[in-house]
């Protein structure tokens, strides 16, 4: 459903991405990994239509991303950044409602009959009822990220783009966030593309990983195929120990102290 054909991006003399070629199927969960500056966020910007490709093209459901209007794109895909949403002084319920923006007509009427029950359902799933009237800027980072997820759920997209969504969360909220996305995908068949710094979370949750380095694809495949000690060593320049997760068997990456 998402076809990336020879896509590249230049910023002046900087080549941020070079000739990427792959297809993401409907309902898959892809992780994008790679060192800082490898082009991960640039790729998310190209996929979401925020930036245009300098070469090649990106098609979504057979149509060039550049040919969709902003509103059409927002009805199809939602983007969630590292810091979620700006900590505005609006109650949580209103912040969720803002996710409906792409569906409002010029009179501000929603094309959906029953928005209230949609929002109720989201607040149930994300346990946001007790926070509904609290202003967003008074919540903790983990709570805010949950509200941000609620807002993109209200947007009812078919594609979810996440750019390092768990970076500022403690391990409990990291796990909670990933589980909520996993449940959402199970229930709706949504396609998820997530830039993740945490290789172990990526291995636990993603079907496929795309590994970038210096704007180039250095590999694409299952976590088992991608997270080998050799590949991690060459991509990140560390000396890793890769073990199988004792419960699920997926690869988990450990570092060792260098000077003992
Ligand atoms: P990552 O998200 O993997 O850390 P980015 O996609 O943010 O990497 O950046 C990839 C490269 O592109 C970097 O060298 C960065 O400096 C450059 N870059 C990204 N956005 C811009 C921009 N708007 N203008 C100029 N250079 C940019
Ligand atoms: Mg980035």
- What is the mean predicted local confidence, pLDDT? 95
Shape: globular
Ligand names: adenosine-5'-diphosphate, magnesium ion
In helices, the fraction of residues equals 25-40%
H and E string: EEEHEEHEHHHEHEHEEHHEE
Strand and helix map with partners:
Blueprint: E1 2-11, E2 14-24, E3 29-33, H1 40-47, E4 55-60, E5 63-64, H2 70-76, E6 77-80, H3 92-98, H4 115-125, H5 141-154, E7 159-163, H6 171-188, E8 191-195, H7 199-205, E9 208-213, E10 216-221, H8 223-226, H9 229-236, E11 240-244, E12 251-255
The structure holds adenosine-5'-diphosphate and magnesium ion.
Structure report:
- This protein is of the alpha/beta class and 260 residues long.
- 32% of the residues lie in helices and 27% in strands.
- The chain contains nine helices and twelve strands.
- The strands form three sheets. A six-stranded mixed sheet has the order 6-7-8-3-9-10, with helices on both faces. A four-stranded antiparallel sheet has the order 2-1-4-5, covered by helices on one side.
- The longest helix has 18 residues, at 171-188.
- It starts with a strand and ends in a 5-residue tail after the last strand.
- Adenosine-5'-diphosphate (ADP) is lined by residues 11, 14, 16, 34, 36-42.
């Amino acid at each position: 459903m998402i076809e990336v054909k020879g896509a590249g991006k230049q910023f002046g003399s900087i080549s941020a991405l070079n000739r990427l070629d792959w297809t993401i199927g409907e309902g898959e969960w892809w992780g994008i990994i790679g060192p800082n500056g490898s082009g991960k966020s640039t790729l998310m910007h190209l996929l979401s239509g925020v930036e245009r490709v300098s070469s090649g093209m990106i098609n979504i459901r057979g149509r060039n991303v550049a040919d969709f209007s902003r509103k059409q794109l927002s009805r199809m895909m939602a983007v969630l950044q590292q810091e979620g949403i700006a900590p505005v002084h609006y109650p949580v319920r209103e912040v969720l409602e803002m996710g409906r923006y792409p569906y409002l007509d010029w009179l501000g009427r929603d094309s959906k009959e029953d928005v209230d029950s949609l929002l109720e359902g989201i607040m149930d799933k994300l346990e946001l009822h007790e926070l509904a009237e609290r202003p967003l800027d008074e919540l903790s980072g983990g709570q805010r990220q949950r509200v941000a997820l609620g807002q993109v759920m209200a947007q009812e997209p078919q594609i979810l783009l996440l750019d390092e969504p768990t970076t500022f969360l403690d391990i409990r909220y990291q796990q909670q966030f990933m589980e909520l996305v996993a449940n959402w995908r199970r229930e709706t068949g949504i396609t998820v593309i997530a830039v993740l710094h945490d290789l172990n979370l990526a291995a636990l949750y993603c079907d496929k990983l795309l590994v970038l380095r210096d704007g180039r694809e250095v590999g694409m495949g299952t976590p088992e195929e991608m997270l080998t000690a050799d590949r991690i060593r060459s991509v990140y320049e560390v000396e890793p120990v890769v073990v199988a997760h004792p419960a699920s068997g997926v690869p988990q990456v450990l570092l060792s102290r260098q000077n003992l």
